[in-house]
Amino acid sequence: MIPDATLPVSAQAREGWKLIPLVARAKTPAITDWRTRATSDEATLKNWQRDFPECNWAVMTGVGSGVWILDIDGEAGNAWLTEQLRAHGSEWARTRKSKTGRGEHLFFAWPRNGAQLRNSAAKISAGVDIRAEGGYAAIPPSRH
Q: Residue 77 burial by CB count (10 A; 0-12/13-18/19+): exposed, middle or buried?
């Protein structure tokens, strides 16, 4: 039976974000083949909520969801972000944000100009990761 409770990620699903359940209090996918099974279908999401009642949630980043994420962690990441804001102004960083355990995620629309964005970890700077095509990132109300 599907729970009556509102799915915590309904708004993101309605935006077309492809979502997956993560293991409770972790960042590991709770399903196999998450790249092909990620969905915005609320019936499937509710079934996953029933099957994994304490799960975390993630958005599959990339063209399928229309979103990429700049992941800022720790002092090094915050220092880089502060420098970018100082050098380029704050207008570019006026976007959806969420707090993480060590920093924040900044959400950006997938580029419509055909630009290719790939996942990276600490290539831009220590404490700065990109979650893009083929990646995923935990989203609220996840806890770890």
A: buried
